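Summary for the steering committee. One of the milestones for this cycle was to obtain a three-dimensional model of the protein with heme C bound, which we needed before selecting residues for the alanine scan. The sequence and ligand used are listed below.
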Amino acid sequence: MKMKFRILGGLAIAAATTVILGSCTADPDSAGLEYMPDMYRSPAIEPYVDYGQVRETENVDMKMSLSAMTPPFGSVPYYGTDSLEVALMLPYHRKANIAFRQTHGMFDDELSLDDTYKMAAADNNPMPLPTDEDALKSFFANGKVLFENNCSHCHGVKGNGQGEMMVTGKFAGVPDYANLTDLSDGQMFYSIYYGKGSMGAHRSIINKKEIWTIVHYIKKLQDSDYGSPNTGVDSQEVAEVTEDDQ
Ligand code: HEC
């Protein structure tokens, strides 16, 4: 009996040694012998592939289901290598004030005790206005589309606060932009991004670049000469980008 155990024990040790030594290779970059390769290699999940129907195999349960998933919160999409473009799309550097937790439901956000709205007054629009006249026209045309798709039902196409929602009495308290000429670019951005009073946050609907475009457009609504090359508004001044502006 004892003898049998000794033989079995010996065999087990020999088998374990073979397995352990067998998994070593001379290649320093190799992970060694893979006994369970699926633990080493995650299957590449590609968006827009119907995994319910791959080559000859068909999996009815998975067929027609979405393979592209929503990226995790805080993911930064790839916007190319143009540094201004990338800077524009990095997360907004100002946190919402703590009061927004009660008013705008930012439960997942890191909030600030500082008066970040006030601090935002120091932020300039990091997006330069095009200097070329045609490019400038199409820039404002794009701003108009963004504004009319997202804002004019409250603010009115002219920005006078008389959008459909106000006129029909469904909503109240929308200001006329003509009374907000002292409002800084940075505070406009902050209010559009996080919301203000009864205006909701727009950050999940339009991205930072679109918001800064709209900020330019609002200034154009306030002053039809805004951005025109011959009117003293220096677009170079607007174009100056500092680290903090992004
Ligand atoms: C549901 C109606 C509604 C929509 C939609 C809306 N707003 Fe407003 N907006 C308001 C109200 C109301 C205020 C006044 C908030 C306050 O001062 O309490 C306001 C204020 C503002 C202000 C002044 C902010 C400040 O700091 O004083 C700006 C700029 C503004 N909105 C821009 C926009 C833009 C741009 C959009 C579209 C992306 C938009 N709003 C969409 C209702 C709306």
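Key point for the committee: Residues 150-151, 154-155, 165, 171, 173-175, 180, 183, 187-188, 191-192, 196-199, 202, 206, 214, 218 surround heme C (CB under 6 Å).
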